[in-house]
Amino acid sequence: MTTVAIVGCTHAGTFAATSILREHPDWSVHVFERGDTLSFLSCGIALWVGDHVSDPRKMFYSSPAELEKLGATMHMRTDVTDIDVAGKTLEFRSLETGDSQTLQFDKLVVTTGSRPVVPSIPGIESDRVQLCKNWDNAVQIKERAHDAKSVVVIGAGYIGAELAEQFSTIGVETTLIDAADRVLANNFDKLITDQVEERYRKHGVTLALGEKVTAFTDNADGTVTVTTTGGAYTAQFAVLAVGFLPNTDLVRGQVDTLANGAIITNEYMQASVPYVYAAGDSATVRYNPTGELDYIPLATNAVRQGTLIGLNIDTPTRTYMGTQATSAVQLYDLSLAASGLTQAGADRRGMDVRSTELVEDYRPAFMLSTAPVTSILSWDPQTRLVKGAQFCSTADISGAANTVSVALQAGFTIDMLANVDFLFQPNFDQPVYYVGAVAAKAVADQGA
Question: Which keywords label this protein (predicted)?
Answer without folding.
Answer: FAD, Flavoprotein, Oxidoreductase, Redox-active center
